Amino acid sequence: MAGLSIQNVTKTFGTAKALDDVSIEVADGEFLAVLGPSGCGKTTLLRMIAGFETVSGGKIDIGGREVSTPQMNISPEKRRVGIVFQNYALWPHMSVEENIGYSLKVAGVSKAEREARVTAALELVNMQQYGDRRPANLSGGQRQRVALARCLVAEPRLVLFDEPLANLDVHLRASMEDEFADFHKRTGTTILYITHDQAEAMALADRIAVMDHGRLMQLATPRELYHEPANEMVASFISQGMVLPADVETAEKGGECKVTVLGQELVVRCRKGEKPRKNARICCRASQIEAVKGKGAGFDGTITRAVYRGGSARVEFEPEAAPNLGLHFDQPDPVSFEAGQRTRLRITSGWLIPAGEGA
Amino acid sequence: MSATRKERQGQELALTTMIVALIVIFSLLPMARLLQEVILPGGSLSVDVIYKGLVSNTTWVATWNTIAVGLGGTLFALVLGVAVAILVSITDVRQRQAFVLCFVTPLMIAPQVTALAWLQLFGPSSPLLNMLGMAPPLGTRNPLYSPEGIVFLLGIQYAPLVFLIVRAGMRKLPRELVEAAQSSGAGWARVLFTIILPLMTPSIVGAAALTFVSCVGNFGIPAFLGIPANYLVLPTLIYQRLAGGGPAVLSEVAFLSVLIGIIAMIGIVLQDRLSSRRDFRITSTSLSVTPYELGRWRVPMEIGMWVLIAIILVLPLVGLVLTSLVRGYGVTLSADTATLENYRFVIFEHVAARRAFLNSMYLSAAAAVFAVFVAIPLGYVIAWGKNRWIKMLNLAVELPYALPGVVLAIASLLLFLKPMPITGIQIYNTVWIILYAYLARFLVLAVRPTVTGYFQLDRALEEAAQVAGAGLFTRLRTIIFPLIAPAAMAGGLLIFMTALCELTVSALLWSSGSETIGVVIFSFEQGGDSKYAAAVSAIMVATTFLLMLLASLFANKLPDGVLPWRD
Predict the structure, then answer these.
(1) A90 contact residues in B (CB cutoff 8 A)
(2) B67 pairs with which residues across the strands?
(3) Model-level pTM?
(4) Taking the CB of the first residue and of the last residue of chain A, which one, N or C, has fewer CB atoms within 10 A?
(5) Do A60 and A183 have their domain in common?
(6) What is chain B's Cα-based Rg?
(7) Is B185 in contact with A93 (Cβ distance < 8 A)?
């Protein structure tokens, strides 16, 4: 087990920049998720940590030892990094036991010890009775467990997960999520977990690194990402946050400041030291929008769509002041809104997105 | 409405009937006739033929020789083909395209031309050795006139076949399987031997079976190298018997050809057993393996690659061309003595050679065109048909090609020795019997790429036409034919190239007036006129290169993997 340090790493393919100056520190024993839309560079990052790709700039350390620099690249087989692949990558010509024992065999571990450790690994993933099976005769979830056991048995310093649940159905995902969390708790291994599914990342990770277009957008705990996004990309990416134009009216005081949004004045949370400024942005969530009875503080607009979702409806709304700005919120039963209806809404709270950080 | 439906069913019935008829005529009928000759000679059940064949010592010697050179050639082809496939697929050597082109070319050259070319390299009359002053003294035997020589040339001839099959397997290897092993701590050699090669078992075993069948059925190489050394294999034994005894020995050679068929079948069955023993199915699809960086070994490897090409391709061709320029036996070749006289002789003067050029041209063109037009409806039924007997259909088309050419040639002889019933037409001793055998043998070469083409085609294109009201024949003509034609035509071109210098079938079926180029080369060489044989061969090699070039020009319109020499 060891920490991982990614320092100013850049990767170019020809003229295209797949990764641009990414720095991430993963503490020993931490579970860190890398989250981002497809094509954001997260898989490239994983392949560089594993040693399958070289870095074009910056460096990567594992457990305090330099493994990748533009001049030097320690080969994958010498890194002691475990990987769990999206498509499991179990070798079809070997039994489950042979698959798991492969790395021990490579390392020249004696037969008796190998068998004991393979059995222990199988127990860890609850697959004791499947040792003789061929991978082709296992279900998707079982294959993923074998892949996990295969990666654990070598006691890697660091385990990389490459979208391990993407090929599983919804039910299995939930139970595998529990298993991964449980496994992390028991072994305390440092884990880097690549995913495009934010619910998965939130459920599992100590901290999440959000990436977009090859750049690190924010590295923070799930709560912080949700409540205090560092830029517009994170704000809109996480839980479909709404980004609204606002003018900051007062300086920060006790973590809050006064802003004007769509003509409505309200108090939002903000970082320390915020000063009054124009053309700022706030992030607000569906739960922070509500309908206003009568002529209270708020703004007018038209309902464009109301989709009943069982227990509540997701309502989409176009404010008069800014027709291109689509807002959405939930109205619990009894649902009364219909498309075309005019109404008045207000924002109850929000987060002032810090200026000039990221995209 | 019901009238239209009836019409549609009628068209489907017509298509099915046509295809079944073709398969009966070109596959089942000749095979059945051959078996009948062996088991039911003259119409009654008898083991006489089999018994006579089995007690003959010559049979056993030839059978043993066939198996020995078959196994030897397969082994050599496997080692060479797999090594090259590994080098090209998973290392970072440069100029891959050019290398693959050169490496696969021997497969495109007829075996007897390969044999002739190699013979010109060694021995006392070798123009190359004479020019270098390294020729052995007159009277020394050419070292290639030996079983080792046969094994060596069979290996070189069929290593490209192994390469193509294993290379195709390597392309499908998902990189994760290799990376999982690497991150488990396995070094490059270990990954190769514990992961990559085991996973390639089906490809390697399949290639081995195909190569074995090809080696066992090869006539050109053992004919050129074995007959002078009196080292007979079954195909050359059949040829000698038939050349000496004529139709009277047909029963006897029918038995021998069934024997070759059985040996070939054993190879195929063994392959099936071996590859079904373990699970090698690769289910996931992914990017292919990242090339291994050879580092300081890269340049030596690349040099080795091109030395290999020089040995298997350039040297023999140089030998061939030099021989074709020699004035006469014993004349040392130099700038002064070189002559184009041999070319003039074979093109303008020698009647049989001139006739052979035309015959082969017509025969191959006819076989190619026919195959293209048959392959399109046949491929349609195989690739998109819903019937269960389709697998059998595919098998029936493959059979005449999977079995050695000798088998089909003897079957054709038996089938057409007597005039055809009802019509009374006699095609024995004419060029038509060769055409029949070509059609039966090479049809599959057009069917395979066509079926591949169908699989890469979106069926919705046809369904859209169906929804628009087009009947089956209209769809075949207006929608499917234009879309699938390039693939089928590439297959036709392969047939043309293969049939142009074909020897195995025509050596047994030709008669005066219906000589083919393969036969002419063989006759020249047997008569001691190597320089004429070399001249004809050089012309044919040049033609082959031109055709390959021509096909490559429209390569981007073809489905992947249709032209074997394009990587």
Answers:
(1) 180
(2) none
(3) 0.82
(4) C
(5) yes
(6) 25
(7) no
Q: Decide the pairing of beta strands A57-62 and A4-13.
A: antiparallel
- Non-local (6+) Cβ contacts of B455 within 8 A are B383
Proportion of chain B above pLDDT 70, given as a percent: 92
Which structural domain, as residue segments, surrounds residue A265? Answer: 242-353
Q: What are the φ/ψ torsions at residue B130 (nearest 5 degrees)? A: -65, -40
Asked if B284 and A144 count as a contact pair (C-beta separation under 8 A), the reply is no
Chain B residue numbers with beta carbons less than 8 Å from the beta carbon of A82 are 183
In a domain? residue B197: yes
Instruction: Identify the closest residue of chain A to B183 by CA–CA distance.
Output: A77
Q: Is residue B247 part of a domain?
A: yes
Q: List pLDDT tens digits, range B231-269.
A: 999 999 998 888 887 777 888 888 888 888 888 888 878
Contacts 24+ apart (CB under 8 A), B93-96: B93/B294, B93/B298, B93/B301, B93/B302, B93/B305, B94/B298, B94/B302, B95/B302, B96/B567
β-bridge pairing A299-308 and A312-319: antiparallel
Residue pair B122/B129 in contact (Cβ under 8 Å)? The answer is: yes
Q: Is the peptide bond before A354 cis (omega within 30 degrees of 0)?
A: no
**Looking at residue A340, what is its pLDDT?**
87
A164 inside 8 A of chain B by CB: no
Q: Is residue A182 domain-shared with residue A265, that is, in the same domain?
A: no
Tally of structural domains, chain B:
1
Residue B317 CA neighbour count, 13 Å, CB half:
18
Nearest by CB to A92, from B183, B281, B286: name it.
Answer: B281
Which tens digits make up the pLDDT trace of B68-111? 999 999 999 999 999 999 999 888 888 888 899 899 888 888 88
Measured in angstroms, the CA of A91 and the nearest CA of chain B are apart by 6
DSSP bridge pairs for B174: B288
A91 touches chain B (CB under 8 A): yes
* AA letter at B375: A
Q: B-side interface with A, Cβ within 8 Å?
A: 174, 176-177, 179-187, 190, 194-195, 198-199, 201, 278-284, 286, 290
Residue A243 neighbours by CB under 8 Å, 6+ apart: A232, A235, A236, A281, A282, A283, A353
Decide if A358 is inside a domain.
no
